[in-house]
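Supplementary material to the annual report.
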Amino acid sequence: MYRQLFARELFNDLDRFQREMSSLFEATAGRGVARGGYPALNVGLSPEAVEVHAFAPGLDPATIGVDLDRGVLSLSGERVSPLAAKPSATEGDGEAAAQPAASVASAGKTIVHQRERFAGKFRRVVSLPDDIDPEQVIASYKDGVLRVRVKRRPAPQPRRIDIH
Amino acid sequence: MSTTAVHTPATDAATVSASTSATASTQAARRRDDYAIQPAVDVIEDAQGLTLFADLPGVPREQLQLRVDQDRLVIEAEMQLDLPAGLAAGHVEVSRQFYRRAFTLSKELDADQISAELNHGVLRVRIPKAAHVQPRKIDVKLS
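Predicted assembly:
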């Protein structure tokens, strides 16, 4: 069902524009798995609103930035890795995870077997259609997905003008 | 950018309905190798055990399945996004709704003592090493 909802439509205007935007900002996105880096983005349109989903697990909600400026929505923040390394005197053939606050037992040496998750600062931008209402933006963060919903202004109804 | 015309989906299959997607097609889909996303993981071993972090954005607690099958740890999960009705695709980078990844556990690990927590889409799994494997100091008595 999800596959049907968000089926790829290759030459949609919004999609093409987003790819161009992504390539402009690639340098700031950092190393990531998805195209454009972390977090991966889905954008959907309904007649009432634009829905943006950023797949950004592991963030502190207080540090997420959602900004709207002249039709460009900017999502920014920082993902701190539990592997954050600090220089420490640890022997052995692995990386040191020395932060006491990290949720990894740090007594003695540690070995990092795999490190695939993104860590660091990120920023992704989405260019929104002209008919959005910048006063009507709702953002929420649930299960690691940042959802931003921007309402669209209703299309003006055609009016008939009387001739006297 | 000029106003994007609302892209009417070519088929109404694209309109959201409170999913009753045929289970037969879901099961057929599950057999394909590419139906699931392999979540990114960090795996760290320390003297006491193994810690694994997996990125599972969009997965609530009730859609996560973690199981240990002999010496394999299997993570399976499904996204639940509550999409509004009538949503048409704009830009899509995540098109699959399932996560699946399996790991082989070394014999040193005590899988019965596994613990896990899910927070903001990040799964943290902790598996201690079996007691007999942990470093112990052995006292040597002098006769």
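Residues 26-35, 85-106 of chain A have pLDDT under 50 and may be disordered.
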